[in-house]
Design a protein that fits this description.
There is one protein chain. This protein has a single domain, classed as 3-Layer(aba) Sandwich (Rossmann fold). Helices cover 38% and strands 17% of the residues. It has helices spanning 12-20, 40-50, 65-82, 113-128, 147-156, 174-185, 203-214, 242-247, 255-258; strands at residues 2-6, 26-30, 54-57, 85-91, 132-137, 140-141, 163-164, 168-169, 172-173, 191-195, 201-202, 223-224.
Length: 261
């Protein structure tokens, strides 16, 4: 099976997806040097050139609608033209936040520009393809190289700032997520699936777990409130990932497990 992995050259998650592939996969890792996602003709030419059976789309730029939303539309259209299956990595930020968990039937109600871009990307992918998986995930971390873990080290070292105590997510280990995406690429599931970790934790609680694992002074990590920001964004984003638990071999560990010292 030939897999085309966008973001597979330099992307944090994309590189893990490439590494998670098995010998039965013929993996093609591509990045911005191969095609500008904002250029529909370039994306179409790239997909036609590599003729994948499955496209795993991990690439995005959080602050750029043209890459995250329009670029995903270009990838979806190109995959449809090539007759390829698409596994699209989406996010829990398509939701506005609430106390109870979101399952796959919940309607997106984004409250941030990035959430709106991801929701738009999902809509296009689900509209133009039948053989598509929209894999919504949460904070990706666990290997020490994630942005969140780097932030914790800076804050524990005395940098200004805090970690949100009112933003609750379901952190997932990057290797677990990559393995689940490869499994979905070769499977038969279609539609939406949630790939969150087993634990719902605030950013501050997650940071304290990272600090303990790395032997840092967790007392230096200060809680802060996302709700006090000019544009707060969603607060409680609890993904119900029971469908993935029932249907996938890959186990999505909780942060209390994968960050255990």
């Amino acid at each position: 099976m030939r897999l085309l992995v966008t973001g597979g050259r330099t992307g944090y998650l994309g590189r893990y997806v490439v590494a998670a592939a098995t010998p039965e996969h013929d993996v093609v890792a591509v990045g911005s040097a191969d095609a500008d996602l904002r250029d529909r003709a370039a994306v179409d030419a790239m997909v036609q050139r590599h003729a994948p059976e499955v496209v795993v789309h991990t690439a995005y730029v959080q602050s750029d609608w043209a890459v995250t939303a329009t670029g995903t539309a270009h990838v979806a259209l190109a995959a449809a033209r090539a007759g390829a299956r698409l596994v699209l990595v989406s996010s829990d930020v398509v939701f506005g936040g609430r106390a109870r968990p979101y399952d796959e039937s919940a309607a997106p109600d984004p409250v941030s520009p990035y959430g709106a871009a991801k929701a738009a990307a999902e809509t296009v992918a689900l509209s133009v393809l039948e053989d598509v998986v929209v894999a919504r995930t949460s904070v990706i971390c666990g290997d020490g190289a994630s942005p969140h873990e780097a932030l914790v080290r800076r804050l524990a070292g005395g940098a200004e700032g805090g970690l949100f105590s009112d933003e609750v997510r379901c952190p997932v280990h990057v290797a677990d997520l990559a393995a689940a995406l490869v499994e979905l690429a070769g499977g038969h599931h279609r539609g939406i699936v949630h790939l969150g970790g087993a634990d719902a934790l605030s950013r501050w609680e997650l940071g304290r777990l990272v600090a303990r694992r790395e032997g840092l002074d967790e007392a230096r990590l200060r809680p802060s409130l996302r709700a006090e920001l000019p544009v707060p964004g969603p607060l409680e984003l609890r993904l119900d990932s029971s469908l993935a638990e029932r249907t996938l071999v890959t186990r999505l560990r909780g942060a209390t497990e994968f960050l255990a010292s």
